[in-house]
């Protein structure tokens, strides 16, 4: 969009007319220091008629006025405004810690008409959650017997989602090191400056491995200002089928007391997801508890165009000066 930075300067456009109209008339004696009474007769003798002379003078006046207009437009700073571009929003630093222990293979979630395991359910819901967190830096921790950083905090949500999709049960061992996952998150957040630090920890079991106890890790997190939301996923034992209940399934038992303590110590909250709908509701609630930044600042790219009318005006003045010189 074409715009003028100082459009009020255009009120000076009729200034030359006002000067001509209200300035004192110039007498014949002031127009020329040397009076040549027979000059007009000489011009007629060489073929320069009075009409041509007046027409030439009129053209010069028009060119000078046009040059004045162009210079004034240049002074008004014409510029091209591009489309509004949203500025990068400063959101939260949010880390997802996903349990990859063997029990995450338990197929007790339904998607459509088929059963899916807990890890796939987590990928479906958490992947959508990641995509919605525009402006936040998202990181990914995977843990089993050990915890490791799969993706550091980044604005590249697509990469984080892809890394989550590629995660496989057993990748970090068969047991569950909840304390180590929290400890790793504390270590990573400690290196960051953002004060809005959130860890979403998803597990279906009890801490059975690792070098640090969950309670101790939660205390360290609280000291560093890291808020932890814990999510226990998986159906209750009473909700499982007989075959699953008595022959192999449901070996995991969620330590809800520990997960509640972790959340309470860090100012977070504990959630329980027994099916896909509940898990989805939890992530919706997380979006409400930790709202996405609503910074509405935009900027429009600006391209200055003042040089073009400036060059055109100077060019016209040069043409006028040359024309005037030839007339003399």
Automatic annotation (TrEMBL):
TM ranges are: 6-23, 58-76, 305-323
The record's annotation in InterPro entries points to: UPF0353/GerABKA_families, vWA_BatA_type, VWF_A, vWFA_dom_sf
For this UniProt record, give its keywords in alphabetical order, as a comma-separated list.
Membrane, Transmembrane, Transmembrane helix
Domain VWFA stretches: 93-289
Establish whether keyword Transmembrane is in the entry: yes
The record's listing under Pfam families reads: VWA (PF00092)
Q: Is Transmembrane one of the keywords?
A: yes
Q: Which PANTHER family match?
A: SPORE GERMINATION PROTEIN, VWFA DOMAIN-CONTAINING PROTEIN
Put simply, this protein is called Ca-activated chloride channel homolog
């Amino acid at each position: 969009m074409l715009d003028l930075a100082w459009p009020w300067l255009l009120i000076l456009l009729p200034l030359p007319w006002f000067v001509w109209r209200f300035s004192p008339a110039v007498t014949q004696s002031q127009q020329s220091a040397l009076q040549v009474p027979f000059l007009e007769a000489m011009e007629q003798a060489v073929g320069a008629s009075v009409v041509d002379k007046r027409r030439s003078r009129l053209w010069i006046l028009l060119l000078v006025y046009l040059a004045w207009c162009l210079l004034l437009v240049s002074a008004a700073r014409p510029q091209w405004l591009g489309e509004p571009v949203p500025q990068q929003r400063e959101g939260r630093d949010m880390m997802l810690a996903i349990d990859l222990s063997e029990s995450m293979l338990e197929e007790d979630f339904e998607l459509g008409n088929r059963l899916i395991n807990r890890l796939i359910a987590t990928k479906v819901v958490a992947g959508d959650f990641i995509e919605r967190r525009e402006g936040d830096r998202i990181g990914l921790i995977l843990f089993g017997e050990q915890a490791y950083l799969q993706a550091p905090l980044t604005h590249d949500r697509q990469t984080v989602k892809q890394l989550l999709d590629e995660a496989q049960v057993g990748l970090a061992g068969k047991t569950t090191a909840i304390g180590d996952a929290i400890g790793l998150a504390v270590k990573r957040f400690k290196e960051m400056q953002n004060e809005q630090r959130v860890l979403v920890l998803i597990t279906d079991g009890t801490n059975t491995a690792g070098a640090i106890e969950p309670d101790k890790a939660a205390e360290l997190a609280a000291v560093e200002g890291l808020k932890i939301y814990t999510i226990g996923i998986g159906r209750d034992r009473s909700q499982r089928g007989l075959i699953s209940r008595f022959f192999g399934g449901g070996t995991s038992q969620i330590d809800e007391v520990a997960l509640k303590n972790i959340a309470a110590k860090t100012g977070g909250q504990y959630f329980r997801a027994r099916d896909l709908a509940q898990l989805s509701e939890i992530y919706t609630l997380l979006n409400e508890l930790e709202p996405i930044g609503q910074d509405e600042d935009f900027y429009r790219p600006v391209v200055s165009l003042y040089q073009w009318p400036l060059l055109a005006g100077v060019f016209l003045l040069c043409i006028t000066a040359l024309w005037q010189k030839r007339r003399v």
